[in-house]
UniProtKB/TrEMBL annotation:
Function per UniProt: Involved in regulation of DNA replication.
Annotated binding of ATP, by residue: 66-70, 209, 221
NCBIfam families with a match to the protein in the record: orc1/cdc6 family replication initiation protein, PRK00411.1-2, PRK00411.1-5
Designated name of the protein: ORC1-type DNA replication protein
Native source organism of the sequence: Halococcus hamelinensis 100A6
Highest taxon in the source lineage: Archaea
UniProt record similarity statement: Belongs to the CDC6/cdc18 family.
GO molecular function: ATP binding; ATP hydrolysis activity
Length: 375
């Protein structure tokens, strides 16, 4: 097929994109508007580190896709060049145990992974704290998506070690930033009392962006990512409306990219409303995709079974899960709780005549959309 370049149609070697990279998940935006108060709050907590003192601990909360990670990455990037300041961001969806968190810190400091044969936690911890005191470095650890440490029951142990580092190792200066997008989780209340007594964090809240803020932020992305005239104001407004409806900026960024690809698929030089509507079918599920991506094999197996038995009693689901994985009831129950807390399934109690209370499990998303992402 040969298409002419002057009839509003793209030729094969033309693209609607100027720089598609700006729509990728790991892209760190150059400009970061509408989060000035939050940046100030975080800077206040981190400032002592620059003077060689222990930073204040902070609790950062807000719904998904509201710029929490980006704010911390920006501030850490500014701090990283300074002598005596060390920052480490740990993604707890990936590293969800105390040992994994400290391995990540170790790796950031020594630039190699701790030996695979495994060294004790104590030794890992001591090598880190010895380094901090020998080099006179202040360490700030961001536990991003810390809610996952709670789902795994590892939060109190991990925090306790970090918060008490200066007591167990004189001279070690460690500050902690906790980031959670699970607004139902009362982080401080769920910690052991011995941790609560040493954890009095500064609170920084990231509210969802309003529609006009979304327009502002996405307009900047459009100018960097698309060639001039590809995305007009009406299309941008529609993207912002859909994005603000979900409260997650990630939806908008994904939507722009997919709508651009869809327009290209039609060999169109412009993104039109129809491209946005079609793309939204996929983009509205960015949460789902992210959540599924972070699951272990057994968690995926259970989700697959729930997708099959949607709305059935937990007992029946357990039978099917057990047949597939050979795992016992305790582990099964833990995974049910985790999938519930992550927001992938809903577990509700019902009273069944003659059987007492029983749990009914249903998917929080459309079953086809879930199955698509498990394949
Ligand atoms: N003010 C902003 N300006 C430009 N881009 C932004 C802004 N806020 C967020 N983003 C973009 O939105 C996406 C999501 O942001 P980020 O990962 O920082 O959110 P988050 O609150 O940490 O989300 P989660 O809680 O789900 O991890 C990123 O691609 C980021 O670049």
């Amino acid at each position: 097929m040969k298409v002419m370049a002057d009839d509003g149609m793209l030729s094969w070697d033309e693209s609607v994109f100027r720089d598609e990279h700006v729509f990728e998940v790991d892209y760190l935006p150059e400009t970061f508007h509408h989060r000035e108060n939050q940046l100030d709050g975080l800077q206040y907590a981190l400032r002592p580190a620059v003077r060689g003192s222990r930073p204040l601990n902070a609790m950062v909360r807000g719904p998904p896709g509201t710029g929490k990670t980006t704010a911390i990455q920006k501030l850490f990037a500014e701090l990283d060049g300074r002598r005596g300041v060390r920052t480490v961001r740990v993604n707890c969806q990936v590293d969800s145990t105390r040992y994994a968190v400290f391995s990540r810190i170790f790796e950031a400091i020594f630039e190699y992974e701790p030996p695979a044969s495994g060294i004790s936690f104590k030794s890992l911890f001591e090598q880190i704290t010895d380094h901090l005191t020998d080099e006179d470095e202040v360490l700030t650890v961001c536990l991003d998506d810390v809610n996952y440490l709670f789902y795994e029951g590892e939060a109190s142990e991990t925090l306790y070690s970090l918060l008490r580092a200066h007591e167990t190792h004189a001279g070690a200066k460690v500050g902690v930033l906790l980031v959670s997008s699970d607004l139902d989780l009362d982080v401080v209340a769920e910690l052991d009392s011995r941790v609560q007594s040493v954890f009095r964090p500064e609170e920084v809240f990231f509210p969802a962006y309003g529609e006009s803020e979304v327009v502002d932020i996405l307009d900047e992305r459009v100018r960097r990512g698309f060639r001039e005239g590809v995305v007009g104001p009406t299309v941008l407004d529609r993207v912002a409306e859909l994005t603000a409806g979900t409260g997650d900026l990630r939806v908008g960024i994904d939507l722009l990219r997919r709508a651009g690809l869809h327009a290209e698929g039609r060999a169109s030089e412009r993104v039109e409303a129809e491209d946005v509507e079609t793309a939204y079918e996929k983009s509205r599920h960015v949460h789902l995709s992210r959540r599924v991506r972070g699951l272990t094999d057994s968690e995926r197996a259970l989700l697959r079974v729930v997708a099959e038995y949607d709305g059935d009693r937990a007992g029946d689901v357990y039978e099917a899960f057990h047949d597939e994985t050979d795992l016992g009831y305790t582990r099964y129950s833990e995974i049910v709780n985790k999938l519930d807390r992550v927001g992938l399934i809903e577990a509700t109690y019902t009273t069944v005549e003659g059987r007492g209370r029983s749990r009914e499990l249903s998917l929080a998303y459309d079953a086809d959309a879930v199955r698509d992402r498990l394949d």
